[in-house]
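We close this part of the discussion by returning to an individual protein. Part of our work consisted of pairing the sequence of a single chain with a tokenised description of its backbone. What the numbers capture is local backbone geometry rather than side-chain detail. The amino acid sequence and the backbone structure tokens for this protein are reproduced below.
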Amino acid sequence: MITARAAASFEPLGRSVATARSFVRDTLQGWGFGDIVDDAVVLTSELVTNAVVHAGTAADVLCLRSDEGVRIEVSDRYPEREVPVQSAAVNMGSPDREGGRGLQLCAALATRWGVEYTPTHKNVWFQLDQPERPVGTRAAGPCLPADLLPLADGRVRVAVVQIDHGGAITAWNEDAEELFGYAAEQVTGKPLTDLAAWPHTPGTGTGIAEALRLSRWEGSYGIRGAHGRVIPVYASHLRVRDTGGEPSTVCLLVRDHERAVLQSPLRVPAGGDAGTASDGPSTDPFEVFIGSPAPDDLDGLLQRTVERARDMLDGDAAFLLLATDDETELEVRASTGLPSARQRFARVPVEAGPGRYGSARMPAVHDDLTVSPGAVPLLNGTGMRSVVTVPLKVEGRLTGSLGVAAEGSGRYSNEEALRLQFAADRIALAVESARLGELERLRRGSLSFLVEASDLLAGTLDRDQTLALMAQMTVPTLATWCAVYTIADQASEPYLSYVLHEDEELIDGIKSLLSKIAPPDPVPTPGARVWSAPGEAAHQAALRSSMRSLSLGDSHHRIGTTIGPTLATAAAVGGETVVLPLVARNRVIGMLTLGKPTDEHFRQEILELAEDLSRRAALALDNARLYSERTAISQSLQRSLLPPELPQIDGVEVEVIYRAAGEGNEVGGDFYDLFPIRDGAYGFAIGDVCGTGPEAAAVTGLARHALRLLAREGFGGPAVLERLNSAILDEGARSRFLTLLYGELWPQEDGSARLKVVCAGHPLPLRLRQDGTVEPAAEPQPLLGVMEDLDLYEQTVTLEPGDVLLCVTDGVTERREGTRMLGDDGLADVLTTCTGLTAGAVAARIMRAVERFASDAPSDDMAILAMRVPEIQKQ
């Protein structure tokens, strides 16, 4: 009968195997199946690896609890990959090989197992039964003579303390009261950490908070009793679930010297001396090798590992490499006795290729590296001759390699290899756990970094600012210095556009150095590639500078001033330099160059992050280029639609104010013009095309050029507008209706000016007389671009000296503030205050009144044309 079930799905990623192991371990511990957890985790790991790594599909894990034990099913979505069914025994190969051991382990460890197929899934299942043992029995220890039994007080007291999921004490038995002097009501509800003096016993590396989160734990610590003294205790913790499913921890505690009551027997490694197990009552092989407390960070753990490995085998150097996710390369992460800075994060292939690591998957002893050069590429040129290397493996998967080297030959044998392998097995899981934790932190930081970078790059369309942002985001987060090369077009050479170093004093030196060497080739292949030219050039320049300075034999001041910057530049640029292409819209638009100081390498995770950033930066840089080009083209075209400088008209003052709505627009749907027609006659126009933006500006250009051409051909105002109307209608779907005020102006000898105007659907022009009265100067007629047949006529207006003719577009009269609108009456009111002002002053006052009428920026184009006949000066 199934009494409980738990299920989870895992993506086809390498890290899913570790997640599946944790899921099964936590589930079985919660069910109280601690005796079969290890076997279940091993089998699950193998089967999930087959699914997500080898089959390349997602894996579904189902745990079923029954009275007898647990059944675990692992399903993948690759049913075509069948397991052959044979009646005879099948030879599944060696158990030491790297893959294909899942079913072999099922046959060896599981009570029952099998494989089931559906059209879409393959399901491998196994069942593990609980061992039959009396309730309360943990393990059978050896029979000891009476004189070897542990000493205890007259009565052994076992304190039973229960802790809830928040760490507070919920139960406290009588033995606990006797041992520590607190009554139950004194401690109930208090955190156990308030009573614990942690750590107390030397050699303890786990804090109490961490211990209480573990499924099972044993170890020593101290409890501060009611009398104030610390009582050393040995504790056994076990996490359980109550009927409501909430986790809690049961702690059993005895006096430290009575630890034999609770302590589980130690497991002695195969081939080891059983007598050594009694040397320390709580010896942990991991802590014996690493020491206590163990470093809580990956770099500290790796460095401690290589130091202890070197000391254990009395070597001159030691090193540790971690495998990449695909296990094809090893990356140097820690070393001692070697030039570690030069090698840190360097990579070597495992199986094939130049400089391969020939013995990573099995223990290996090399008596003399001079006989087999290149067997361990890390040691090339270091003077080391003998070396022993062993793999770090977790669940059969290669996770790294640990090696110890000596300057003499023949220093190591298979015995040292076995000792080192035993130590590697003790620390492999801890190293892998720390590595996965570091990788998770890096990935989270990378996601946060890329989100912030995308926001910053998307916030600008300025090319120079985009270049600066690219450099500032890479330095110092990804590299010590960077340079950005840009390519204008396919026929252009790469141009050094930006250089940045975390030390600003070195920027000029790097820029000068890079300007003297050929830029990297603009190869579109994605990914980072090493560029050795800057480092070589820096070292050569430093060498030449040093030789010149020494040959001069001058004062220290001269040597310092000539050699200092060059040596500093060489140190800054002399490390690893990589180039990433900036590819946008299938074209290489530049290169992002990243550099490290002397003898440093880039981590693969950093290069992958830089590649992701380069893709985003390339698109942002190309967008900035396109925006700049299109802005320049737009502005050039818009300026071509504006009339040239206004002509000077004897006897008439003219002023124009033009404002196009929208950011970056110089021309919109409103337009104006003033031009000579023939001797003594001038044409003027002010119009408004329906809409704004480029479409309206196109009709604007058509109207302005057509007006000039037709007027100079001798057509009168009505004829000019009728022909313009036909031209607009000929545009078809692109046509826009147009309101237009067109007129012709003749200055008169008596100081007045005669005008003939046609107002086609446009706001009427206003005439301001000297006495301050304002009146319309024309009558409304049909607008253009709507009807084919128009019957237009012109009206004659005479401006006396001192009179002003004001022409505006509807962006002026329709200026709004909420429900209020300036309107024709509001405009007339403002114009009445302009008596005696020049044409320029009139136009400026009208514009100020329009701007102040509302607080928001204008949303429509505006044009103001003011013409004034000056007063006759009395003699």
About this structure: The chain has a mean pLDDT of 79. Residues 767 and 775 are 5 Å apart (CA to CA). The longest strand covers residues 230-241. DSSP finds 20 helices and 35 strands in the chain.
